[in-house]
Amino acid sequence: MANNLKDQAEHHIQAQNIIVIHPGSHYLRIGRASDVNPVRILHAIARRRKPGGAVHRDAVLPPVVEKTKELLQELEDCRLQITHTLQSCVQSNGQRRYATPPQQIAAFNRRSQPEVVPDSETEWHDTTGSDVVIGEDVLLLNPAGDYNVHFPVRRGELNLHAGVGGSLFGVMSDLQTIWEHVLHTRLHIKPSEMRQYRAVLVIPDIYNRAHLREFVTLLLNQIGFGCCFLVQDHVAATFGAGLGYACVVDVGDEKTSVSCVEDGISHPNTRVRFDYGGADVTQVFYWLLQKCAFPYRECSEQTPLDGILLRRLKEDFGHVNLDVCGSVEKSFSVQHPGMAKRNYTLQVGDEAMVAPLSIFFTELLAITGANRTAPKTQKGCSSQPHPEDCFDAEYIRETGRRNKDNLEQSAIDSGALPNTEAPDEDLVVDGLEQERERETKSNDRDYLLPGGQLVGLDQAVIQSIERCSTDELKRKMYGCILIVGGGIKFPGIGSWLQNQVASKIPPVYRTEQSIVSSPKDMDPEITSWKGAAVMSCLESVVELWLTEPEWTRYGLRILREKAVFMW
User: How far apart (Å, rounded) are the C-alpha atoms in residues 268 and 299?
Assistant: First the structure.
């Protein structure tokens, strides 16, 4: 008994010195492995603009595309299709669903007037003497002020662009400033104590090798952790959910990814990522609210505070509960600096269901253009050679070709082969490149509908599972689908996905299905973070820790050897 208590105490002390970092497009989640929940902070930074400097302001929501007549017709056709699908569904009591006509809802909302709360004005954030503003305070900066606003991660990748602050150095500097701010002010770790701490970084399932190098350099050389290791978000999610295997569906704010994980390994062929997420659903929801005469008429989705408001309304109102029929009266408040607080009342009908279902009916995502962005697979992201990595695919291909040429020349010299003119070396390389390009394009086509549009989430799950190598593995994955991420935290979304997948599963794999959307009653937003915290405390990960001297001496070679994922 005494030994057990001693082991638990040592385990807790060890967990207190491990910092788990999960960077996202919208939020950064960071905390000690011993914490119940991580610190969550808006993953944004504002830097004071130099006099006469270029202006750059990343928005909270992705911008909408130009609303042409053709686009509006496409959106309306898809809305009607979803509405008719919902009307054909039945409630749990067996009765057909009914809906309130949109005209009736719009008439109520037009009559709705805000209630102004007296003496409720607030001021914009005072930034006197502050050149850098981090986290939620960025939202309280006057939009007309002299700050540039940056979100270092966009669509699940580093936010590299041609504007000011968009270089790799600029983005990594922003990440360092934000992360150090949280470590020092929220976790109360002194800079002089950083070497006593270890870091676990949750990385995307589809990763860029060059960016991983930058992340490790940031953690070990710049922030100054004693050691670190990297873990893919889908693998961490299975640990957080306590599952040995699962088809992981991760819907974040700006990206959606799917892959099949078994025994801590994410199968590379099954990985796919789409550039749409909860923020695109928010824009769809705002378009639907406008069609119903949204009473907050001054709302602008590109204003940071209004973007956050729309996001919150989507989370509060959105659902996929077939038992909720007709219109529902809702209320919300708007309080912007420099203005009095206003309370609004509005009616919402099936719009609260149509917006979440845009993840399945991707024509609605045309409002941000996200439905026609090419999907990303691991093969497309694995072909970036780096001079530090001596044994990457480029090296293997080059040495393999030279060995073949040497063998052929030896055979010619010995008379075993006739002496013909050697093929042009460039043609061999081009042939390999063309073959790889054809294979990547073929894989991508499976995730596209006719006309170049991305498939819905249910079809993406099926395409991912169908890439598993054996029938037994496919059967296991169809039997356990794990939903994580904060992009589609809507009541009933798991049941809808289960029904859609069940109707499309090949008959040979139709077994008992399990959709896990809130593992262990945990917020799906932190499943991956929690899983990384669990992994970091296992005895088996002792050999995975990468130290600063090792990294400085060997670089990417040591990461290839110690990574918990196939490089």
Answer: 43
